[in-house]
Design brief:
CATH superfamily of chain B: Amino acid/polyamine transporter I
Distance between the termini of chain A: 111 Å
Radius of gyration of chain B: 21 Å
Number of strands of chain B: 2
CATH architecture of chain B: Up-down Bundle
CATH class of chain B: Mainly Alpha
Oligomer: heterodimer
InterPro entries (chain A): GerAC_N, Spore_GerAC-like, Spore_GerAC-like_C, Spore_GerAC_C_sf
Shape of chain A: globular
Radius of gyration of chain A: 27 Å
GO cellular component, one term (chain A): membrane
Pfam families (chain A): Spore_GerAC, Spore_GerAC_N
Helix content of chain B: over 70%
Membrane topology (chain A): Lipid-anchor
Subcellular location (chain A): Membrane
Number of helices of chain B: 13
């Protein structure tokens, strides 16, 4: 009797565990998911409203290895657009037109239209911070024009525009003319009282008659509104200071010929100093290493004196880029370098009084730039391809 | 109630204490809200303070070897007053079990499965805990050993994976907050992770080597403190200014791991690890509550009490607070004082009374042991 009771209990317990511990309550089958690859936010015609474009993958349109010719002309993605006031509400509204509920965990990019960027993005992005499906390391972009157009552009090399853009962002490390900004980095700056941030810009341009997406330069945001733009050189100046340089080419002129140097690595140390009279000075020390890429002309730049000249010219070029961006941000009055934060870390007590007047202090900030460069490798030839001078 | 069959080695006690403190890593949002980016200082200072406070428990164990805190209360204060004190301890362990279980419910509900009703989650969770308690304390302590190592491995792994996202600048402004904040945060960290090992005083009767109890407790606490410090440092250095804004910093941090686009979405490791650690903590607390009831009312075996108490725990942990905001307020503001009463004040008076008792020579009494 007791044995049978035990067996029945055992079976009951096993059944209970099977049912209870598999977590089926929240399960969603794969074919009920609309996997969102990219989201775009635009300002709708009515200024209070936001237009959200969600790019969803259509798995049928992705050509497999076998279909060579492309007999099916189906696109691999579809863009849904909705207008409304609250982000979460709009995203749920998509279920009116989409047969599947949108699934955000594979989202690659967030694109913000320029108009919305200028009027403030903090409130629109609150939902993305809070929602447990939205991920924090998603690329952010500002579209010159509207985000909807950017997401609609059929890509050349890939199949889904959002993935194309994400890969485009990853490739930006090679020129370092654009930062690659993640969503969580933006939230860091939104939380700070004095910090400003940059988001890369993307626009639809023309290249040999075709429309392509061009990513270069960045948009400067103060608090959460876009206040200005930086061009490529200025953006790279910013990246020197925030240590986000990947690779890139620096062009210099030495001894009447031009040379191109490839950046290998760079490091910047920010040291704030408060003088005895209360004046604030920021010291930047940049150490950089590069490789010799190419040169024009017949003068051999790989002599000891010329290498030194090149290193100085390179330092000068870097200093110029940084000074360009410093000037631009002084007019925009945006502390995108994190100088305020650096001061806060080193002088927490003085910072309390400075924080409120940081706008004025930043304009008059004295920045000292010290650059040290080194040229490492010289390439496979050590003289330019000219007949040697006898 | 010294069940001669069950014996716990001092190494098991040591590791279990460490594991118990590890389980509190889910609660770092309490500390984060008060101390902000200087939470790590609070952790270090609290560790020092807790070492002093735990000496009380060790001293009591030395004065009355082989007895749990409930039995000690009875021995020191006599049958009537001792039982009243024991009821306090019963309530304390019971309430801690409820609070931790509701934390699990909140965590799973908020982050993993939003639509699952809490009853399903809690029922499954407490079912396993009650099963473990019925198996006996030796089983639970052995789990502690295993889970401590697991906890360290998981945290170590995440530290390595997150190394490129850490920026130690975020730790920097130190001692920039008003003094009361430091006092408050040290208070919280001392009481909530560290001194909750009062629960282990219920386990003392089963420990084989009574002299080594002190050493086990201290080393275990050190292990747990190291883990907590590493977690707090890692979270602050990765999250920086958002550390105070995020609901569960340790969880959020694991969502940022992205190595070569291949190693991503590691948060499932963290979810599993946290579930396992809290399972251990609730098992110990449940055991402490059940054994306390058994010892107070002189019931021979605690095993029959496990299921009723477990069911009560499930019921109350469905909704101990009105809202999540109240839960946060409780953790930062009320819990330190509430727990301090049971963890510090009661043992302190017990210790004083025990010391006075040991100084008065026994006059012909058979002894209340």
């Amino acid at each position: 009797m007791k044995n049978r009771f035990r067996r029945i209990t055992g079976v009951a317990v096993a059944a209970l565990i099977l049912v209870g511990l598999t977590g089926c309550w929240n399960s969603r089958e794969l074919n009920t998911l609309a996997i969102v690859m990219g989201i775009g936010f635009d300002q709708a015609n009515d200024l209070e409203e936001v237009e959200i474009t969600a790019q969803v993958v259509k798995t049928k349109g992705i050509k497999g290895g076998k279909n060579g010719g492309g007999s099916s002309q189906e696109e691999a993605f579809i863009n849904f657009t909705e207008i409304g006031t609250g982000s979460f509400d709009i995203i749920r509204e998509f279920t009116h037109v989409s047969s599947r509920k949108l699934y955000f965990t594979h989202n690659q990019i967030i694109v913000i239209g320029e108009n919305l960027a200028r009027s403030g993005i903090r409130n629109t992005l609150d939902m993305l911070s809070r929602n447990h499906e939205a991920r924090m390391n998603v690329y952010m972009l500002v579209a010159k024009g509207s985000a909807k157009d950017v997401l609609n552009l059929k890509p050349e090399l890939g199949e889904v525009p959002a993935m194309e853009i994400a890969q485009l962002m990853e490739a930006q490390k090679n020129t370092s003319h654009t930062p690659d900004t993640f969503f969580y980095e933006v939230t860091f700056s939104l939380v700070s009282k004095t910090a400003a941030f940059v988001i890369p810009t993307v626009e639809i341009g023309d290249s040999a008659g075709r429309k392509v997406l061009i990513v270069s330069g960045s948009a400067v945001f103060k608090t959460d509104k876009m206040v200005g733009e930086l061009n490529e050189k200025e953006t790279r100046g910013l990246l020197w200071v925030t240590d986000d340089i990947g690779s890139g080419i620096i062009e210099i002129a030495v001894q009447g010929v031009t040379a191109e140097l490839e950046i290998i690595r760079s490091n910047c140390k920010i040291t704030p100093e408060i003088g005895a009279d209360g004046s604030v000075k920021i010291k930047l020390k940049i150490t950089e290493e590069s490789d010799f890429g190419s040169q024009t002309g017949s003068v051999n730049l790989l002599t000891m004196e010329n290498i030194q000249r090149m290193e100085e010219a390179q330092a000068q070029e870097i200093r110029k880029e940084i000074e360009m961006v410093l000037e631009k941000t002084r007019t925009l009055n945006a502390d995108i370098f994190g100088f305020g934060e650096a001061l806060h870390r080193k002088y927490p007590h003085q910072w309390e009084s400075m924080e409120a007047e940081w706008n004025e202090i930043f304009k008059a900030l004295d920045v000292e730039i010290e650059v040290e460069t080194k040229i490492n490798s010289i390439g496979r030839i050590d003289q330019p391809n000219y007949p040697s001078k006898e | 109630m010294n069940n001669g069959k069950e014996q716990i080695l001092s190494a098991q006690l040591m590791f279990s204490v460490g594991c118990f403190i590890q389980s509190s890593t889910l609660l770092t949002s309490f500390i984060a809200d008060v101390a902000g980016n200087e939470a790590w200082i609070a952790v270090i200072a609290s560790y020092g303070l807790s070492m002093l406070l735990v000496r009380m428990y060790v001293k009591l164990a030395k004065l009355y070897p082989g007895k749990s805190i409930v039995q000690i209360s009875e021995a020191v204060f006599g049958p009537v007053l001792g039982k009243i004190l024991s009821c306090f301890y019963i309530w304390f362990f019971f309430s801690l079990a409820i609070l931790n279980t509701s934390d699990v419910g909140f965590f799973v509900n908020n982050f993993i499965m939003p639509e699952t009703p809490k009853m399903a989650i809690l029922l499954m969770f407490i079912f396993v805990c009650a099963w473990a308690v019925r198996r006996g304390v030796e089983t639970i302590m052995r789990y502690g050993q295993l889970f401590l190592i697991m906890g360290f491995s998981v945290v170590g792994l995440f530290c390595i994976l997150l190394f490129k996202d850490m920026s130690f600048d975020n730790l920097m402004p130190v001692f920039a907050m008003p003094v009361m904040k430091y006092v408050q945060s040290i208070h919280i960290v001392t009481i909530i992770p560290f001194c909750e090992i009062l629960a282990f005083t219920m386990v003392f009767p089963y420990v084989k080597d009574q002299e080594k109890i002190g050493r086990s407790l201290y080393i275990g606490m050190t292990l747990g403190a190291i883990h907590l410090l590493v977690v707090v440092l890692r979270d602050i250095s990765v999250l920086g200014p958002v550390y105070t804004h995020v609901t569960a910093p340790s969880f959020q941090v694991t969502r940022l791991i992205n190595i070569g686009n291949v190693i991503t979405r590691m948060e499932f490791f963290y979810e599993v690890a946290v579930n396992i650690l809290i399972f251990f903590k609730v098992s110990v607390l449940l055991f402490a509550a059940v054994l306390a009831v058994a010892q107070t009312f002189h019931i021979k075996s605690y095993r029959s009490l496990v299921i009723p108490i477990a069911v009560l725990v499930i019921c109350i942990s469905m909704a101990p607070f009105i809202s999540a905001a109240e839960s946060g307020f409780w953790g930062s503001n009320i819990a330190p004082f509430y727990s301090a009463f049971f963890e510090i004040i009661l043992p302190f008076f017990t210790l004083i009374a025990a010391l006075i008792r040991s100084m008065i020579p026994e006059e012909g009494e058979a002894g209340l042991k």
